[in-house]
Amino acid sequence: MRRRELLLASLALLAVPWRAAAAAQPAVTMVLKSLKNPFFELMTAGARKHHAQHRAEYRLTLDGVPEESDVAGQVKIIETSIARRDQILIITPADSRAIIPALIKAIQSGMLVINLDNKLDDRALAGHGVNIPFVGPSNFNGARAVGDYVLRALKPRSKVGVIEGLPGSINAKARSDGYREAIANAGMSLAGIAWGDWERDKGRAAATALLRQTPDLAALLCGNDNMAIGAAQALSELKRDGKVLIGGYDNIPEMAALLAAKRIYATADQHPALQAEQAIRLGLESFNKRLTQSEMQSIVRTPVDLVKS
């Protein structure tokens, strides 16, 4: 009897750390890109709002890099998160391939890792044999909806230009692919593609180059609203306001006035605050169920809606 009591007491002691760990607040780190981009400001606001409503359930650290392409900066944030022994890492990657080794390191440290907004490269993930869940909309479908709407307002066989985001971003490619399909379906002509790297000034420069290359360009389909705003600036500088339709993507706050004035014809709202909430929810549910990385739900689709002028 004495031996049985000692055994039960030992088992109880072993269980205490597990119960304490299970009861502790998990630490969630969300790593964003381009903190100066209004889209990620909306995403940050969504994360903060969710945390304010669920403060007792988890601790939240929000961090990010100033430039869209700063992979090294994101890697440093991930390494800091690993050193803190955080439980959940959520990231909008600056590059869909280059960041993967750092994320694998985080998984190996025991963290649950979730991919938000800009999808990681599926082939690269398969090559590493790792499941990193994606939370976000179909960028292809959202861009195609914008393209379909803009191009319906044009004459047959009109010439259309595309301004794409960073070449290393899967969502940049998906949006351009959606625009290409809309152009093909409408029987329009793809006059050229230029890269604006998600930035306003570079979008303006890309639009200027396309407009000079094709003087009779009828529309510009842009991979995000920053570049669309830059394209609208280019039209004003070239005295072509109202003569070229512009499509954007993200529905950042500045777009409301531009859409109302019809300086931009349409954009897509992919609800960044909701994306952040869904990613945090997936991380917490997986943590509380004690799921491993491989057991996590592989994709959570969030909505994307057409916004018209």
Tell me the layout of helices and strands.
Blueprint: H1 2-23, E1 27-32, H2 38-53, E2 59-64, H3 71-84, E3 88-91, H4 100-108, E4 112-116, H5 122-128, E5 134-136, H6 139-151, E6 159-164, H7 170-185, E7 189-195, H8 200-213, E8 217-222, H9 225-237, E9 245-247, H10 255-260, E10 266-269, H11 272-288, E11 299-301, E12 305-308
Parallel strand pairs: 1-2, 1-3, 3-4, 4-5, 5-11, 6-7, 6-8, 8-9
Antiparallel strand pairs: 10-12
* CATH domain class name of the largest domain: Alpha Beta
Shape designation: elongated
Portion of residues in beta strands equals: 15-25%
- Compute the number of strand runs: 12
Radius of gyration, rounded?
A: 23 Å
The profile of the biggest β sheet is: 6 strands, parallel
Structural class: alpha/beta
In total, the number of domains comes to 2
**Helical proportion, percent range:** 40-55%
At the fourth level of CATH, the homologous superfamily of the largest domain is Response regulator
CATH architecture of the largest domain: 3-Layer(aba) Sandwich
Instruction: Flag low-confidence runs.
Output: 1-23
Straight-line distance between termini: 80 Å
Strand order, sheet with most strands:
2-1-3-4-5-11
Which fold does the CATH topology of the largest domain refer to? Rossmann fold
* Helix count from the secondary structure assignment: 11
